[in-house]
Write a structure and sequence with these properties.
The protein has 220 residues and is an alpha+beta fold. It has seven helices and nine strands.
Length: 220
């Protein structure tokens, strides 16, 4: 995979620590999730603000700013609900740079203004790049506006390239379905290995073949 860490322009730097208490107040945080915050996250920093006044790209299609948050992690594993809580607390698109030891990875969900309810944002599933050395950076993609930049940054995290003419929502829907089918396949394999009855093994194998064919179609 092409490195998905970017050099952000210095004029866009904010460098402001975000207290976890602010997320707790606005991100629908219960006691169990708050405990995971404490156990997994050392510090949250609002690192960059990509906006018309900082990178000279116009807003378009509801994307007026893109935020870059650094999360210094205590553990390599991070509960996805932690990212979702931060996204809920801040009504703007966010890319997270997860930092653990000398390595960093980017993660984000497709986040967009709700068409049904003004002021609300829709947050889809999360995608993440590989863990990379912090120095593995590349320039920001060339874009005409913030919406185009947002789409390119998000596509950089996806495991499969877009098909010809495939829009970002279509690509995300396909990859979400692919991930779901891959999970189903893994669960069926476990069931097959445990199954003792021959006729049930035959039925499970047939289901696995169907899932495999669908996974191939979604991956093509």
């Amino acid at each position: 995979m092409t490195p998905t860490l970017f050099d952000f322009p210095p004029q866009a730097q904010v460098g402001r620590v975000l207290p976890k208490s602010k997320v707790y107040q606005h991100g629908r945080i219960g006691a169990a999730l708050r405990e995971r915050f404490v156990r997994q996250v050392e510090q949250i920093t609002w690192q960059y603000k990509l906006a018309p006044e900082t990178i000279n790209l116009p807003a378009r299609a509801g994307i007026e700013e893109i935020e870059i948050f650094d999360l210094a992690l205590k553990t390599e594993a991070l509960d996805e609900d932690i990212l979702r809580a931060i996204d809920r607390a801040i009504p703007l698109p966010i890319f997270f740079r997860l930092q653990h030891g000398p390595r960093t990875r980017m993660a984000a969900a497709y986040k967009r203004p709700s068409a049904a309810e003004a002021g609300k944002w829709v947050i889809d599933g999360y995608f993440a790049g590989e863990w990379l050395p912090a120095a593995a950076r590349r320039p920001l993609p060339v874009a005409l506006d913030l919406h185009g930049l947002y789409e390119q940054l998000l596509r950089s995290l996806l495991s499969q390239p877009a098909r010809p003419g495939e829009s970002l929502p279509e690509q995300l829907e396909r990859l979400t379905r692919l991930r779901s089918r891959q999970n189903d396949y893994g669960k069926l394999e476990v069931r097959l290995h445990r199954e003792k009855q021959f006729n049930r093994k035959v039925a499970l194998n047939a289901q696995l073949r169907e899932l495999s064919a669908e996974i191939d179609r979604l991956s093509a």
